[in-house]
User: What shape does this take?
Amino acid sequence: SKATVSVLNWFETRNPETKPKTTTNHPTMITTDITLQGLESLQAQVEQLKGSQTEMYSGLNNAWLIFGAALVFLMQAGFALLEAGTVRASSVSNILFKNCMDGVISAIVFWYMGWAFYMGTDKDNSFIGSGSFFLDDMERGDFSGWLFQWAFAAAASTIVSGAVAERCRLGAFFVYAVYLTGFVYPVVAHWGWSNCGWASAFNDRSKCHRFGEIGVIDFAGSGIVHMTGGCAALAGAIALGPRRGVKSVTAEEKDAAKKAAVKNATVAAEATPEESGLERKKSVLVNPNPEVIADEEGAEKAVYDYRFKPGVSDGQFNPHNVPLQALGVFILWFGWYGFNSVSTLAITGGAGKVASKVSATTTIGAAAGGIGALLFNRVLVAFKKREKTWDIGSLMNGILGGLVSITAGCAVMEPYGALVTGVIGGMVYVGASAMLQGLEIDDPLDAFPVHGACGFWGLLAVGIFAQSKNVEAAYGVSSTTGFYDTAHGGNQFDVQLAFGVCVALWSGGMSYILFFVLDRLGWLRVPAEFEEVGVDISEGMGNAYSDHAGVGMVKYTPECDGEDDVGDAPVQPAAAPVGPSEPIAA
Assistant: This one.
């Protein structure tokens, strides 16, 4: 046959020394004598080619994961810039220190225990993994997988740092970073991404029962990564309470405080040692406004109170550096291509085509999120304040909200689904942010609205916009899709909803327990006077800006009492209001 002749011709060129003997008895007839030795040699070379191809594919896939891990880890720089620009100038060094420590702590913790609770396979446990502590039984080719998943764990931990900014003790944050990356996040990742998790689409163990037809579809982690970090951030913000800021005081309040201070000083000076504390207390003029402070001579002092209290202007909590915010958002957007596209975990075979589609839907979702948040915020502001404004903060966080929203379904949606998901994600961010303001929950970075609320919406969007052909390409199955694919029904929506609720309860509940314990022990929040002078100075780091208000890099000590210990210039209040065109005050 023609196929036989083709094989023989190829074989002759590869092995001239074993060229088969041929005799021609007729112009149209060829008889071939193939030796057994030639067939065995051909089979050996075919097997060698297969082995070389497998090794090449393995190398490409490992390089793909390492490249993705580097992109995701670059997002830490984006988080650092975004958070540094959003907090007040007196807390920049502190927030950058926490971001750096996130990477340090998460790497060590995910090495010795996080990976074990996530991917450990010693036991068939649908709730939590076990085994492979310290990566002791890791195969050589699996280290790229560990690196990629560590970058995700570090991102989940960093989300929390923005919500607790400006008032959380460093020690408390370090404890939480260990807790999240070593236990809380690995458990959720085991549920949704391991080969034994109760909600995992990759569950291939007969003893590990799976919820739903194929489990949850959370391709790159709207729920597993972002909801985990976002709900933990909400728990931290609630446990810590609002930040403190400068309070505006009326003339009557100032006068009452001065009179009380003068009277108290007089009574204290005239009191005899024989007088009891109770009698002296009865002689003291009670200050009707104890939050208004004045010294014995009646000189006014800075007055602070918690955000959302009467007289505390909300404008003083505005971001101090918008360029840093914008640069951080662009770096995060850039890194998100590693976050989503490389979640194929391979580049060979059909995975490359899936990754290319993921890149397109990620881009559309981000852009749509920015548009949705910008327009929805403009409508809300026009309704509440009767004015029309364009808010760059809403645009930037809307982009991030769109990215978070599309992360779960980026591989299983069509571009139009990504557009709708992103637009709604931007609106969800604006609505959730307004809700926190109404509830008087102080989340400086809007970590919960961006990551928690939009992450939950991202999970639900999969149950609406997923398409069977995309599910088959990304997961290898085609039996479940969203509502709009009427051929298979909308049962996937129920799975997505249930998983999102479980993640919120687990991450939020477990995180609040830890924050509550730390608060009861007095380890959670810095003292009020530390917060007022600024956590950069009070935590011993010095200001991030060396020429900041002419103070320089100073250390705070109680004996300093508001005076610069390297000069005579007084330290300005850390939370003083800063207008858009005014110089930054320490």
